[in-house]
Amino acid sequence: MRENNLCFIDGQNLYIGTKLEEVPWNVNLSKFRKYLFKKYRVKFAYYYLGFKIKEKQSLYKEIELAEFILIFRNHNLFMNGQKKGNVDSDIIFNIMKKIYKKENFNKIILVSGDGDFKILVDFLIEENKFEKILFPNKKYASSLYKKLATKYFDYLINIKNIIKK
Fold this sequence. Notes:
Blueprint: E1 5-10, H1 11-19, H2 29-40, E2 42-49, H3 57-65, E3 69-72, H4 88-100, E4 108-111, H5 118-126, E5 130-135, E6 153-155, H6 160-163
Parallel strand pairs: 1-2, 1-4, 2-3, 4-5, 5-6
């Protein structure tokens, strides 16, 4: 595997997924980033969050210090209090944009359990551009992935001892 893979992380899904485990746990982002590089040769890892909150500046700094590229969903300034954090369409669009522009990368790694990515995953597999989807929580991984070949997915709980805080 070449060292030019990309990772796209649904940050809210990652956070909530590990919190909903029978024994809740937190991901050490630096350890996780190192794991992504060593295991999957991830050159760039994009960490998507719904919107910026003033009180979460230390989290944003932690994400960036761990060498993730932090991306927030764009929101209309007039939507105060009504913002929805759903980043799925942003992730899908940005992956498809990279393919359309023929950007130089080998494979995609996704971190989410959301079924909204299933059609993208199928397409990436068809195009030989998909490496793996890492589910933050076994119980809450979408049932849409039930027929996905096991070589294309794993659960973060399986590497908890490597990446936990």
